[in-house]
Write a structure and sequence with these properties.
704 residues; five-stranded parallel β-sheet; disordered N terminus
């Protein structure tokens, strides 16, 4: 007779009991509310244009008006968003790369549901059909772009206004909001208004859109809904003019506008969250981040602890953990120059490390190597899926991103779910009621480690033990205090901005060096040296456009790359002469004056004494240096770079577009090699005296 492990018995008994209790509770719930269905059903209430949040069986609890949405409609980075719209949204989706831009900015689209020519009534139908996708486990927010096709409700033929149409549109808007609330009472709601000129079907667009926008504004004020004002934007006027409502040739700009305005609602991060911690951070802090994340998604404390127990067994709850690289000292013979000091592997070095593991016979093939919090195997399951969606490595490496990817797998939605769904495992996790059950269910159905079908496997003993320990330490966290999303996008820190991988408030960091000659620095999000600039290349004289691109991307959350800035500068006559780097002074005279309309930021010259306060306020500083500066490369007569932060003791940190690990290590590419070798322009702070040496000017840049 085969002996049965005690955990196996406990698991089977508890699993059966959990299923039985779940079945009984569902039946009791149904019987308890059946008497209220006639008077309190969503269908009945929808006919009456009434929204109900709680319907316990007493008809007098049914509200006769729609409750306000949760106050403070701020959409935090890492949140998931459902998008609903008509042809304008179709254009942004198909021509404006809306999905990609939302993800790049740090949000996860649950679904972009859009069909041309649809109106508010259709929107109500879609919300009712997609209740599961709008629920708390799937979406933190909804963005609606409807109302344009209800023009006939407010303007009849001959441009005569229909007064009664106002109440019709208002009623449908309230009905749509009520249906959304039924699916998710805590959802954040956004609505974009519409620009219109000329006539359509003998109806005045300017009159009709004006009326519809007024109604949107009224409802938004009543229901704590945020309006994204496309109707009053310069982009809309530029690309639509008097040609209906569609931004022909400008859907990319419309998508940029929408993403930018969503970003303006994101709260300022004061450094209190650890969600963006990467490898090498305190394991206890990482476990707490995981615990809070799953509580915010609706998991019980027991279920969240079960996930943590498995992550401890897989990666030590380290998003930069690579399988078979146990530590810096015990690295399976891998070249240690490819590793972080604690043995972590950054994505920039993943391929090289994987090749060495295969060549040394540690593993048969790269596909057998796991990576990340749950050791995705093959690692491409998470890494390539994300990279193919244009997610930057610096974001993929964070705890928050990997947790969101995992959640999408478990819920079967979004990037992780749509490509590599693990919804079956997620459904099984929701049936568990104890820490032991959750730890075993996650190991068996999601991790599926070797011999996981054997519940007597000692791995279960270890993972259950780790989960119980985590539960005892973290169970006191109140689920009501946990946010449904954590800000991990580009956000201001206490004293400025970090390079990716340094801390919780990363800035965009581009390089003007050539990829072929530059070291692969994991903080750098793009090498642009080979791109043309004037009569030369960005490598030769592109410190200005590259620095400006970093500043705009960081402050606005809208990705702007150096070639775009360089082309814009040339098109607007901000360069002169035929030599590669002649006329560089244009940057000071031209860019600040023209930046507000084009880039959404403004700049002004300041003294060094003002720099610390400006950095603490969340702004960035463009700095020009010349002869005598430790920030100037040998042979150069001037350089532009970004002052990004101030330390607690008053020294300054920089983001240098021409900085590289080799330059810092060799110390030979500077007018003062010894000083440069010691400092390093991007990583090590300089005091005020060092900054003053060779300083030409400082321009503070802030978002409008």
């Amino acid at each position: 007779m085969i002996p049965v492990h005690p955990i196996q018995i406990a698991y089977k008994v508890r699993y059966v009991l959990a299923a039985l209790l779940f079945f009984l509770s569902m039946n009791v719930s149904f019987l308890g509310q059946s008497s209220a269905l006639e008077n309190c059903s969503p269908e009945k209430l929808r006919d009456l244009q009434v929204a109900i949040i709680n319907c316990s069986g007493n008809s007098d609890l049914c509200s006769t008006s729609i409750s306000p949405l949760p106050s403070g409609s701020t959409l935090e980075r890492g949140s998931s968003i459902y998008v609903l719209g008509d042809s304008l949204t179709v254009g942004m989706r198909d021509s404006g790369e809306l999905d990609k831009k939302l993800r790049t900015a740090g949000w996860i689209p649950t679904k972009i549901n859009a069909i041309g020519g649809k109106d508010l009534k259709w929107g109500i139908e879609q919300v009712n059909a997609d209740k599961a996708l709008l629920g708390p486990a799937s979406s933190n927010a909804i963005l609606v772009g409807l109302g344009t096709n209800n023009l006939g409700n407010v303007v009849s033929s001959g441009t005569t206004e229909r007064i009664e149409g106002r109440e019709e549109i208002r009623g449908w808007m309230l009905e749509l909001i009520g249906a959304v609330q039924l699916a998710n009472p805590n959802i954040k709601m956004y609505w974009t208004n519409t620009y219109g000129e000329g006539e359509y079907n003998n109806r005045s667009l300017s009159v009709g859109m004006g009326i519809i926008n007024e109604i949107i504004a009224e409802v938004a004020a009543e229901k704590n809904m945020t309006v994204l004002p496309w109707a009053t934007s310069t982009e809309a006027a530029e690309f639509i003019g008097d040609n209906e409502v569609h931004p022909y040739g400008g859907y990319a700009q419309m998508a940029d506008f929408i993403v930018e305005k969503l970003g303006e609602t994101a709260p300022v991060d004061n450094g209190s969250t650890s969600c963006c911690v990467v490898g090498g951070s305190d394991a206890s802090s990482n476990q707490e981040t995981v615990f809070k994340f799953f509580l915010s998604k609706g998991y019980t404390a027991e279920q969240a602890a079960g996930v943590i127990g498995n992550m401890i067994g897989e990666s030590g709850v380290n998003p930069l953990k690579m399988q078979f690289v146990y530590s810096y000292e015990n690295s399976s013979g891998v070249d240690k120059s490819l590793l972080e000091p604690n043995g972590d592997v950054r994505l920039a070095n993943f391929d090289a490390v994987a090749s060495q593991l295969v060549n040394k016979g540690v593993v048969n093939k790269v596909a057998d190597i796991g990576y990340g919090l749950v050791q995705w195997t093959p690692a491409s399951k998470m890494i390539l899926t994300s990279q193919n969606a244009s997610i930057p490595n610096a974001q993929i490496e964070t705890i928050q991103y990997q947790l969101q990817f995992l959640w999408e797998q478990l819920s079967g939605t979004g990037l992780g779910g749509s490509v590599v769904s693990e919804k079956s495992a997620g459904d099984k996790m929701l049936l568990t009621t104890t820490v032991e059950e959750a730890a075993i269910a996650f190991g068996r159905w999601y991790e599926r480690f070797q011999d996981s079908d054997n519940l007597g496997n000692n791995q279960y003993v270890e993972r259950v033990s780790a989960a119980l320990e985590a539960y005892d330490r973290l169970k006191g966290i109140d689920v009501q205090t946990v946010s449904s999303g954590v800000s991990c996008g580009y956000s201001v820190g206490v004293n400025g901005w970090d390079l990716p991988g340094e801390g919780d408030h990363p800035m965009a960091y581009y390089s003007q060096m050539r990829k072929s000659s530059a070291p692969d620095d994991p903080a750098v999000q793009g090498y642009y040296g080979d791109e043309p600039y004037g009569e030369g290349t960005i490598a030769g004289c592109g410190c200005g456009p590259t620095s400006w691109a970093m500043i705009v991307t960081t402050l606005t959350g809208k990705k702007v790359e150096p070639p775009e800035v360089a082309n814009w500068a040339a098109e607007n006559g901000l360069r002169s002469g035929s030599e590669a780097c002649s006329g560089s002074a244009w940057w000071w005279t031209g860019v600040p004056a023209m930046s507000e309309a084009r880039w959404g930021v403004k700049a002004r010259q300041i003294a060094l004494s003002e720099a610390a306060d400006q950095l603490k306020a969340g702004n960035l500083i463009l700095i020009s240096v010349g002869e005598g500066s430790p920030l100037l490369s040998e042979g150069g007569d001037g350089h532009l770079l970004v002052m990004r932060a101030v330390t607690s003791d008053g020294r300054y940190l920089f983001a240098d577009t021409s900085d590289s690990k080799s330059k810092r290590a060799n110390g030979g590419d500077s007018t003062n090699p010894d000083l440069f070798k010691e400092l390093g322009s991007s990583r090590t702070p300089l005091d005020a005296a060092q900054v003053s040496s060779g300083l030409n000017a400082l321009f503070v840049v802030e978002k409008i």
